[in-house]
Every structure is written in structure tokens, then in C-alpha cells.
Amino acid sequence: MRGPIRQPDPLLVILLLLAFLPRLIWPTLAEFKLDEATVVRRAMEIAWKGALPVAGVGSSIGMANLPLTLYLTAIPLRIWDDPVAAVIFIGLLNGLAVVACYALGKRYFDRATGWIAAFLFAVNPWAILLARKIWARTLPLLTVAFIAALLAFLVRRRQWALVGAWAALAALVGLQLEGIALIPVLVLSLLPFWKEVPLRPLAVGAVIFALALAPYGVHDALHGWPNLRQFWNFARAEEGHFSWDALRYAWILTGSAQIHSMAGVRFIEYLEGLPRLWWLNTGMMGLLALALIHAVLRLVRGTGEERRTFVVLLLCFAVPVALRSRAVESVRLHYLILVYPAVFLLVAALIHGGYRTLPLRYRPAARAVGVLLALLWGGWQLAVVGRLFWFMDRYPTTGGYGIPLKYPREAALEARRLAQGAEVVLLSNGAEPAYEESPAVFDALLFRHPHRLVDGRMSLLTPDAPRVVYIVGPVSPDGDGLGPVQQRLQRMAGVREERAVRMPDGWQYRLFVRERTDREDVLADLTRPAEPPRFANGVALLGYSLPQETTPGATLEVWLAWWVQVGPPPGSDYHFFVHLLDGEGHLRSQHDGAPFPTSAWHAGDLVLSRFTIPIPADLPAGLYEVRTGLYTYPEIQGVPVVDAVGNPAAGDVLLGTVAIR
């Protein structure tokens, strides 16, 4: 005979909704800038190319992080090769962190303390925003695991839990270098009870920690210790100084203070859409201050178990703050994410501890007030987040939050549909995904589709193929620096424009399809030499555009159409130059650069490149020669023009003369 069906705990249901819904809803509104795109691209290499990196992405201090974030992100991307999969996966892990916070509070305090801590954690706007970032940082779920293992050893006297603390610590360091701050937390937590520390679990844990970090250390040693030296230079930097920023950010992370910075230049408009309840953040900061005092008092007056619990929580707050208080560079808010969930557990212990000190006759009224305050706080915090989500969808280019994943993802999906397996070419502000945002974003979004990245301010690539799709953008309402190349693209006879992906504030990603077997339309309006000059590296100059005259102080715009007859050897790097020379052959102005990265050249490519030569304001009137050529970089060795049999014939090509009026 079956027993009665147990009804779910309403509070637990509410907690689960608050933990997961804000972290999972509208995943395409997640941040997707250079850092996030770099993580996705490198995780894709693990998931789909079998890469096994031993070092991760770079850090703000110049050394590489460990690669655990990349391996973690590769898990969902192997299942679904879309950054949305990573957003959902990391959101789930961070939702679990809230549930784990509840379990931790319930186990080492009581059910009410666990619920209060988890509630504060669940609705916290900064916690929600950081929980949706593909850049995993230090996952609070692992911080909870570290604290839980440490408390299981110190409070519950489970000796082998110490191994779990070491393992969690290794994972935290593997995710992000900020995890190093928890190494002294472990040491200082054990120090007062050193006589109780068993050697075998301590040694096993230390070995696990060392083995987890060993591949990174061996790799660094084999390459001359660049990361260790960078860390040492950071630790002993003379410009290090005391800063209150770390402590200030630790307080800010308790609520929604300064969240308006995510709205960028339109932050006033963001603030105007919310009720003026920002003073609630001050109240929460005050509670944290009281909670720290309460924790210190419990260290003195509490039971043995209380003292051990509060030692760990206080250290988890104080050590990361103290280490970041010596600032060598500007301190960022996300550096202090290690204080989660300790701050919420400390505040919850204060609130429920204060409640239990009340006489019984006052407790019903206190509960009623507490529920009302919780509804006010939770509703306000969720309104702040909801307003931010709406605002970033409505104004995605304000410069604070960055263009959400939604818009470039839509452009990439549409480009892949239009391409029908053909190559996609991105024309944007830059071509280097290692340090330029738009190339990094689309390099990740198009990872499993043939694509190339072109600096649309300088060049227009036409591959040797009957079909190619172009993504141009993001394009501002006034066209910005992409205008000249975009206009060239639109004038080509074989090109048609498709539906643009428009953002509500006027920016857009424009999509074009080129279908044509020949490329005569690319060379239209250009001067075409009867015998195209050929360079020794396999590049031929098929045409150019040169104004007949200009004036001092103006800019001379020169277009070159160059054809890659033979693909360059691996590792080569060629730069172009366009020089303005006077009658005596003296250089008067120039534009040098790599209009299209050599590493991306394919045999058969036809490239239109735009060079802008500033004309000095004091340049005398007269006729001036314009010459062009190539050289290797960084050797600065000229690439000769060759004759029909491949012998060097000249060092550059004379395009013509221009009159300075």
C-alpha cells in the first residue's frame, strides 16, 4: 500500500525558480565580447578539433590562466556548437550554486539561515549577470564545494574531506587565477587546529593539487617560465599601492549598486525607468558590516563548531579582499566574486541569529516584517535585472554591457543559411580575433563554417568562388569607417543585398551575396595595366585607382586590386606600402600596413585594398609620384617586382603622378 504523496516544499520551489530562471532566461542576451568569444573559440578547438591546451586565455596581469575554463566550456559546445549552449550550461552550474548555498547554510546553521542566504544569492543582480557570462571566472559552485569540504573536515571531523578541499581548490585555480586567493584561506583555516590535521589526507590532497597544476607548470618550464616570471613581476611591482577598491567592490556585490554602469552612456535613462529604491543597497551593505562584527563576536563567544564555521567564512571574505587591496592595476568588480557565497551566509547568520534572540511574543511580527522586506528586496533586485535585460536589448551599443549575443548570432546564422556551404567573409573593424572584438565574435560564431575575417576599413576580399556571403558590421547609423569598402561592394554587378540584422538603436549587420563566375565587376572603375606587375611572392597588381590631384591638408585615397596567384608559405607576413615621392625621390608621405592578414591568403584571392595618405599641410604645390610595393615583416625586406621568367626587375611599381594644387 502506497503512503501519502509528499507535497513539494513551497519555499524550495520558489528558491529553485529564483535560482535558475534569472540565470537561464533569454540566453541570447548574454554578453558576448572579446573575452567570451575567445573562450568559445578555444573551447570549440577542444570540442571539435581535439586540441588539448595546457594553458588558457590571457589574464589582466599578462600571464596565461590555466585551461579548465576552456575544457568546461567545451562540454556543452560538443553537444551543440552554439554559444547559447555554453550560456545555458554555465547558467545551470550557477543555479546549482544557489541550491548548494542553501544546503551549506542548512547543514552548518539551520534551514532558515540556508534559505535566507540562498534567497539573497538567487536575486542578487551582480550574481545573476556574472552567472550568465561564458567567461566562467571562478564558479561559485566550486567555492561552495571548497567551503563545504573545509567545514566537513573542521566541523564534522571527516578527515578525508580535506582531500575534497584540495581538489576544489585546484579546480578554482584551474578556472581563474583569482582562485589563488583561496590557498591562504585553506592554510589559515587549518593553522589554529594544526594538531588535528591528519598527515595522510593532507598529503594526498596536496599531491592531487600539484598533479592538477603540473601540466601548466611543465609547459611554463619548457618555455622559459614566462608565466611564473610575469606573476613574480606582478607580485613585486614597485607601483603597487593600497586601494580601497577591493573592499568597496566586496560591499557592492551584496546588492545592485553601480549596476547602471552596464547601461553605458545611457545610464541616466536606465535609472529613470526604475523606482528610486537604491537606498536599499546601503541597507544591505550595513547588514554585511554588522554580519562581520557578529561573526567576530561568535569567534569569541560561540561554541566550538560555530567558531570553526565562522573562521572559514570570515577568511573567505577577508583574504580575497586583502590580497586585492594591494593594487598594481585597476581593481575590477569581478575580481571579488570569490566572496560569494560567504557574504550571503554571513548576512543570513546575522538575520536569523538576531531573530532567535527575540522574545517569543515578538517573533510573529518579526516574521511578517521579514517577509515584507524580503519581497521588497527580491522584487527590487529582480526589477533591476529585468530592466537591464530589456535595456540591453533595446540599446545594445551603449558601450557598457556590449552588443548581446543575440544580434551577431542572428547575423551568423543567416549568413550560414545564405551561404549554402560557401565561404562567409566578415568585413568589420579589424581582422585579428586575438585582440579585436568583432573578428573574435564571428570567428567563434562561424567556427564550423568556412569563413575569413577582413578589416572592412581597408580591404574587400573576393575569393575565387562562384558564391560568397558577406557580413558587414556592426555598421553604425552613419556608416563609420566601413562606408568606402561597403560602397564598393554594393556597386559590384554580381552582388545583391539580403535582409539586414537590425538593432533597435540603428546599428546593423548587413548581409550581401555575391554570385558570379568571373570577377570583372571587382575591377570596374579601376586603371588596369596592360601587363600586370608581378611580385616575387606570387602577388600580381591587376588595377588601381588614383586621383589626379589633391590639396595640402587633404587625404589621398588610393585603391589597389591585387591577386594572390600562389598561396604564401606558412609563417610569412607581407605588408604593402603606398608612398608619395617628390621630384627628387624623397618620401613626403606614406601609408604602410597589412590590409589583409597574410595568414588568411588563399591562392586565387582578389583583394581590393584602400590606402589613405595624409598630405602635409605645408607640402609645396607640384607633381608627385605615387609608388607601391610589398615587404616582409618584421624583417622589412622588400619584395621585388619580377619579369616574365621570375627575375627581379624593380623594387616597386609606379602608379602615376598626382598634382598638389
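the 2nd protein, sequnce then structure:
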Amino acid sequence: MLLRITDHRRDKGCRPEHDPVGGHRFHFGHRCRFLPEQDHSGDPVLSAIRFEKVCKSYDDQVVLKDFDLEVRSAETKIVLGGSGSGKSTILKMVLGLVKPDRGRIRVNDQDITDLSEDELMEIRKQIGMVFQEGALFDSITVGENVAYPLREGKQHTNDEIEAAVKRLLGFVGLASAYDKMPSELSGGMRRRVAIARAVVHRPSIVLYDEPTAGLDPITSRTICDLVIALRDLEGVSSIFVTHDLSAAMTLASEMALRDAAGEVTFRSEDDNFCLANTRFVILKDGQIIFEGTDEALGKTDDEYVREFLE
């Protein structure tokens, strides 16, 4: 059974793949589960990502200095900062691609700082990654691209993989693209396929590296809706690196909800509702100079932050 999403926001900027005029965008399967559900009933509330006094330099350039950051379960941290402020290094460190000079890094409460490459491969199975350009394989179909992480894992049958891929493509509004080649898709469609591939194995963490860069406002809003839905309906923890302040404000001020009838709606912040599971992190000279909600960001008197936002 497919469930309809209704949008109660004032600005309905996103449109479904089949409707160039307007209306509802995505359809979710029951509880939006992509593969057979895992049992997390006994799990405590986790710290999904934690940096503890991390330092990192490249030659004489200090990138991170005594850096502390925590992303809780089902929380999104939106990371902003100028060129060379350490944004990309943070993502690479979560994946274990870059080691800190000092300090500790934990993923799902496991210290990954000194793990071997084989051990890190197991950690990476818990993480999805969405790149700015989508990073799809151009020589295989969209369906095969999305299926790739599952086929690598060799833990699912072909029928399970096909069902999961089709469900995910429906989730991102591209059900009809299953047999298409990436070259047949627009830039925004490629980003949506990249999101489907990033979450097809049901990671608890997703890292977004400039996923809305270069996209028009409507397509950017579509990407934001997917990120919001994954956060609020699937409990995905994430770091969202961006220069796109409009996208950042959307993520920090809107929530996806599912009512008793199974209908999914988006709700914007108002006087009676403030989103607490998404916060801004602004970097300068390898350190966090601001961390807080969109409301706190709007009230800050920090001159660098004000100038950066303008």
C-alpha cells in the first residue's frame, strides 16, 4: 500500500516526477522501510557521531583544533564554514578515510580512531554518503546503481534487492527511472538516485556533502524534503555540509510527520512548534564558533557569523 504525502507549508515548491504543474511529490511504502526491519528495541539512545578534542593539520595548515562535535540519534547537524574550514575533513574522518593527529572519533558509540581498514569497512556499512555530483556509475542502469551496496554485501536475495531498489526509487520520486542510464537523468534526478543508493542498505547515519549545490530552488527543495523525511521518519542521523543557506534553513525549520491514517505531512515551525533535532554548526579556523537552532542563529551578535550569513 502506498501512502500519500500532503504538504501543509505555505510554499509548495516541489513537484512530483509525473506532474509538471504541482501537487504531491513522493509516495512512501508502509513505515517507509526499505528492507526487512532490524530489531533495535533493546538499543539505548546512541551518540551517532562524536568528535572528542580532535586535532588535524595538513603540513602547516591547522584544519581542526581541539574540535568537539556530537550528533545524536535522529539528529542533523548542518555544517557551514568558509573554504578550508574543515568541513570535508569532518566527513572523511567519520568514514575513517582521514585519521586525526590527536583526539578520538566515535561512530555509534564505537571508537574508530585506531581501527584497521578491514574494521573500518564494517563501520562504513552503517553509513551512507551523498556527494555533490551524485557519483553514480555511468556504465550501469539506475536500478543497478541503487542495488550496488546490497549486492556487495551478499546478504540479500535478488528478489529482496529488486524490491528494495524499486521501493527506494519510489521514495525519491523516480520509480520510472529503474531501467534508465544515469546519462538520461537531470542533475537533480541524479542526486535523488544518489540518496536512494546511500540509504538502500538502511544505514543509521548519512553524510551529505553539498547535495543541493548547483541545483535550482525547486529541485533543491525536493532534496531537502528527502533529507527531512529520512531524519524524521527513519530516525537517520546526519551531517549536512552546505553553502546553501536556503536549504539549510529549510532543514532546520521543517518536520515530516505521519498521522494515524499513514499520511505524511510536512510542518513548518511556528509559535507553537520549534524543531530541536536539527542544529547549525559554523566553523572558523578549525573550531566551532556557533552551534544552535535556527532561532538562536537569527539572534546571534557574533560579527563573523552575521557577515557569513549575509
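The chain has a mean pLDDT of 84. The longest strand covers residues 47-58.
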